[in-house]
Design a protein that fits this description.
With about 375 residues, the chain is of the alpha/beta class. The protein has a single domain, classed as Luciferase-like domain (TIM Barrel), CATH 3.20.20. About 50% of the residues lie in helices and about 15% in strands. It has ten helices and eleven strands. It has an eight-stranded parallel β-barrel with strand order 1-2-3-4-7-8-9-11, surrounded by eight helices. Strands 5-6 form a two-stranded antiparallel sheet. Helix 2 links the parallel strand 2 and strand 3. The radius of gyration is 21 Å and the shape is globular.
């Protein structure tokens, strides 16, 4: 089982420009310190997301830019986008940016492609929102060809068509690709058909549900034709909130409050996403429905009840929060499901010292299998 470190962030850097500036500066200091420690401790990769205009992930607008900094601060650990919202970007720019990081890191990169879901993110590319899924999967195939050095035709400033080759040329012959899924079985199957690796999460689904999706992915991957640079067998990477302490009680006491706050944000965001999807579908089928088609928001009481339920269930299965022995059993269970790598989500509200101590304990567990 490979162990990686995932950043996602759910913190509020404070009110006012000065406080936010100082808070964000400190956050980048934390990321650099944790990345250097993960590199020394033997973790497989560091994942950084792409987020825009929200509390969650305030300091992560560009994984390529941050990975370029991490490339010069680390020596062996892989640097991956988890995830890059491909419909927001021209595929040529993606190929160019990640080729720079690939050269700086001497081939230590990987990219997980997401379709995007939050409509506000698409102020960066408003025309790409409605067909974002189709665009992502189409451009993923194009990205593979660009990385391999193939010329591709695009429209230039005069409206003519011109063939270009992405520069600089990357260090690696092929680009390691993942597809990000929020849980849809269709996305798991699509990732298999495209022969990409897959980046999912344990949260929000049962063990049996996840086992079924992994089987679906494996079957689709095995049946799919070969793709340039794709390995014979795909990698299943699962994100899990992680905090390893001396005892279960200590882990739950220290991680409980920040994890509940994160889960509260997750529950509210998930509910809002479902409401937006329902509204979008209702408007598409009944244009006269208007704003009345949008479901009502959760009340504070409902949100609190759902958060507590999610917290209790997540401690029972899906997280790496507990003693070394508890986390060892959780890792073995995920391996039995067919998981190849756990991306350990560490920055959900804990301090730098707590995260570093947790990673040291976790590295000891990973070292037992090496």
């Amino acid at each position: 089982m490979d162990l990686s470190v995932m950043f996602f962030g759910a913190d509020d850097a404070g009110a006012g420009h000065t406080a936010k500036y100082a808070g964000h500066t400190a956050k980048y200091d934390d990321i650099l310190a944790i990345a250097r420690a993960a590199d020394r401790l033997g973790f497989t990769a560091i994942w950084t997301p792409e987020r825009h205009f929200q509390q969650v992930g305030q300091v992560f607008p560009n994984p390529a830019l941050l990975s370029a900094a991490l490339a010069t601060a680390t020596e062996r650990i892989h640097l991956r986008a988890g995830s890059l919202v491909l419909p927001l970007h021209h595929p040529l720019r993606v190929a160019e940016d990640w080729a720079v990081v690939d050269n700086l890191s001497r081939g230590r990169i990987g990219v997980s492609v997401a379709t995007g879901w939050h409509s506000t993110d698409f102020v960066l590319a408003p025309a790409a929102y409605q067909d974002r899924r189709e665009r992502a999967f189409r451009d993923l195939a194009l990205l593979r060809r660009l990385w391999a050095g193939e010329a591709a035709e695009f429209t230039d400033g005069t409206g003519g068509r011109v063939a270009v080759v992405s520069q600089p040329r990357p260090y690696s012959a092929s680009l390691p690709l993942w597809t990000t899924t929020s849980g849809s079985p269709q996305t798991w199957e699509a990732a298999g058909r495209m022969r990409t690796n897959i980046l999912g999460a344990t949260i929000g689904q049962t063990r049996d549900e996840l086992a079924g999706k992994i089987r679906l992915y494996r079957d689709a991957y095995a049946a799919a034709p070969e793709q340039p640079g794709a390995p014979p067998r795909g990698t299943v990477t699962l994100m899990a909130h992680t905090y390893v302490a001396g005892t279960d009680e200590a882990a739950r006491e220290q991680a409980g409050a920040p994890l509940k706050e994160y889960l509260r944000s997750y529950v509210a965001q998930t509910a809002a996403n479902k409401q937006a999807a329902a509204h979008e579908g209702a408007v598409a089928s009944k244009p006269a429905a208007g704003k009345g088609a949008r479901a009502g928001a959760l009340s504070e009481e409902q949100l609190g009840t759902l958060t507590e339920f999610a917290f209790r269930r997540y401690l029972t299965w899906g997280s790496l929060i507990g003693s070394p022995e508890t986390c060892r059993k959780s890792l073995a269970d995920l391996a039995d499901l067919g998981c190849d790598e756990v991306a350990c989500f560490v920055d959900f509200g804990l301090g730098r010292a707590e995260v570093l101590e947790s990673l040291r304990r976790l590295a000891d567990l990973g070292g037992e299998d090496r």
